[in-house]
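During the reporting period, we have paired protein sequences with C-alpha coordinates. One record among many follows, to show the layout:
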Amino acid sequence: MTDIVDAALIEELLLDLSRIPQMLFVLGGEGAVAEMFADGNEVTVTDGYANVKAESWHIHIKLADISGTQFVEAEDHGTPKLYYVRFSDITEETLFRIYFPNPYMDERGNPIPFQPLRLVAFEEKRDKYVGRGGIVMAYVQRDP
Protein backbone atom coordinates (compact mmCIF):
# COMPACT_ATOMS: atom_id res chain seq x y z
CA MET A 1 0.00 0.00 0.00
CA THR A 2 1.21 3.49 -0.85
CA ASP A 3 1.80 6.02 1.93
CA ILE A 4 -0.79 8.79 2.08
CA VAL A 5 0.67 11.94 0.54
CA ASP A 6 0.04 15.31 2.21
CA ALA A 7 -2.47 17.49 0.31
CA ALA A 8 -0.26 20.58 0.72
CA LEU A 9 2.64 18.71 -0.90
CA ILE A 10 0.38 17.56 -3.76
CA GLU A 11 -0.74 21.16 -4.23
CA GLU A 12 2.89 22.32 -4.35
CA LEU A 13 3.81 19.58 -6.84
CA LEU A 14 0.82 20.28 -9.13
CA LEU A 15 1.60 23.99 -9.13
CA ASP A 16 5.25 23.26 -9.90
CA LEU A 17 4.39 20.85 -12.73
CA SER A 18 1.80 23.17 -14.26
CA ARG A 19 4.47 25.83 -14.82
CA ILE A 20 6.43 23.57 -17.18
CA PRO A 21 5.56 24.06 -20.87
CA GLN A 22 4.26 21.06 -22.85
CA MET A 23 3.11 19.02 -19.84
CA LEU A 24 0.42 16.51 -20.84
CA PHE A 25 -2.38 15.74 -18.37
CA VAL A 26 -3.89 12.28 -18.93
CA LEU A 27 -7.12 11.34 -17.15
CA GLY A 28 -8.97 8.05 -17.28
CA GLY A 29 -8.05 4.45 -17.71
CA GLU A 30 -8.62 1.49 -19.96
CA GLY A 31 -12.17 2.41 -21.04
CA ALA A 32 -11.64 6.07 -21.89
CA VAL A 33 -8.72 8.47 -21.77
CA ALA A 34 -8.54 12.25 -22.08
CA GLU A 35 -5.21 13.86 -22.98
CA MET A 36 -4.79 17.60 -22.56
CA PHE A 37 -1.81 19.93 -22.64
CA ALA A 38 -1.78 22.41 -19.75
CA ASP A 39 -0.03 25.05 -21.88
CA GLY A 40 1.92 26.35 -18.89
CA ASN A 41 -1.22 27.51 -17.05
CA GLU A 42 -0.88 27.41 -13.30
CA VAL A 43 -3.01 25.25 -11.07
CA THR A 44 -5.24 27.01 -8.56
CA VAL A 45 -6.64 25.38 -5.42
CA THR A 46 -10.08 26.17 -4.06
CA ASP A 47 -12.08 24.26 -1.43
CA GLY A 48 -9.85 21.18 -1.62
CA TYR A 49 -9.85 20.94 -5.42
CA ALA A 50 -6.93 21.63 -7.74
CA ASN A 51 -8.21 23.42 -10.83
CA VAL A 52 -6.30 23.17 -14.08
CA LYS A 53 -7.44 25.46 -16.88
CA ALA A 54 -6.26 25.65 -20.45
CA GLU A 55 -7.67 27.53 -23.41
CA SER A 56 -10.42 25.06 -24.32
CA TRP A 57 -10.76 22.74 -21.29
CA HIS A 58 -10.48 22.55 -17.52
CA ILE A 59 -10.41 19.87 -14.85
CA HIS A 60 -11.05 19.75 -11.11
CA ILE A 61 -9.02 17.30 -9.03
CA LYS A 62 -10.15 16.43 -5.50
CA LEU A 63 -6.90 16.54 -3.53
CA ALA A 64 -8.27 14.37 -0.69
CA ASP A 65 -8.66 11.46 -3.15
CA ILE A 66 -4.93 11.39 -3.93
CA SER A 67 -3.18 8.95 -1.62
CA GLY A 68 -0.15 8.01 -3.71
CA THR A 69 2.26 9.84 -5.98
CA GLN A 70 5.02 8.28 -8.03
CA PHE A 71 7.58 9.72 -10.41
CA VAL A 72 7.75 7.11 -13.16
CA GLU A 73 10.32 6.11 -15.75
CA ALA A 74 8.58 3.57 -17.97
CA GLU A 75 9.62 1.52 -20.97
CA ASP A 76 7.37 2.06 -23.99
CA HIS A 77 6.72 0.47 -27.37
CA GLY A 78 6.99 3.59 -29.55
CA THR A 79 9.85 5.33 -27.74
CA PRO A 80 12.50 3.93 -25.42
CA LYS A 81 11.06 5.59 -22.28
CA LEU A 82 8.21 7.69 -20.92
CA TYR A 83 8.58 10.08 -17.97
CA TYR A 84 5.59 11.10 -15.87
CA VAL A 85 4.08 11.59 -12.44
CA ARG A 86 1.28 9.19 -11.48
CA PHE A 87 -1.35 10.13 -8.92
CA SER A 88 -3.36 7.27 -7.39
CA ASP A 89 -6.15 6.70 -4.91
CA ILE A 90 -6.24 4.59 -1.73
CA THR A 91 -6.73 1.38 -3.79
CA GLU A 92 -3.69 2.35 -5.92
CA GLU A 93 -5.86 2.93 -8.99
CA THR A 94 -4.51 5.66 -11.24
CA LEU A 95 -6.49 8.90 -11.00
CA PHE A 96 -4.40 10.81 -13.53
CA ARG A 97 -0.89 11.17 -14.89
CA ILE A 98 1.15 14.18 -15.96
CA TYR A 99 3.70 13.47 -18.69
CA PHE A 100 6.91 15.42 -19.13
CA PRO A 101 8.16 16.36 -22.60
CA ASN A 102 9.69 13.18 -24.00
CA PRO A 103 13.44 13.37 -24.73
CA TYR A 104 12.95 10.82 -27.53
CA MET A 105 10.24 12.78 -29.39
CA ASP A 106 9.92 16.19 -30.98
CA GLU A 107 7.04 18.61 -30.30
CA ARG A 108 4.90 16.85 -32.93
CA GLY A 109 5.40 13.40 -31.42
CA ASN A 110 7.89 12.20 -34.02
CA PRO A 111 10.80 10.00 -32.89
CA ILE A 112 14.15 11.78 -32.59
CA PRO A 113 17.57 10.88 -31.18
CA PHE A 114 17.80 11.31 -27.40
CA GLN A 115 17.73 14.99 -26.38
CA PRO A 116 19.15 15.23 -22.82
CA LEU A 117 17.92 18.80 -22.30
CA ARG A 118 14.32 17.55 -22.64
CA LEU A 119 14.90 15.29 -19.61
CA VAL A 120 16.10 18.08 -17.29
CA ALA A 121 12.64 19.08 -16.01
CA PHE A 122 11.82 15.48 -15.03
CA GLU A 123 15.16 15.03 -13.25
CA GLU A 124 14.88 18.35 -11.39
CA LYS A 125 11.34 17.68 -10.15
CA ARG A 126 12.15 14.04 -9.31
CA ASP A 127 15.13 15.16 -7.25
CA LYS A 128 13.05 17.84 -5.52
CA TYR A 129 10.04 15.66 -4.60
CA VAL A 130 10.97 11.97 -4.37
CA GLY A 131 11.45 11.05 -0.72
CA ARG A 132 9.22 13.84 0.55
CA GLY A 133 5.92 12.98 2.19
CA GLY A 134 5.51 9.54 0.64
CA ILE A 135 6.38 10.47 -2.96
CA VAL A 136 8.37 7.64 -4.53
CA MET A 137 10.24 6.75 -7.73
CA ALA A 138 8.97 3.85 -9.84
CA TYR A 139 10.59 2.06 -12.77
CA VAL A 140 8.14 0.26 -15.03
CA GLN A 141 9.28 -2.40 -17.48
CA ARG A 142 7.15 -3.17 -20.50
CA ASP A 143 6.04 -6.76 -20.99
CA PRO A 144 7.30 -8.18 -24.31
Observations:
- The chain has one domain: 7-140.
- Residues 7-18 form the longest helix (12 residues).
- The mean pLDDT is 88.
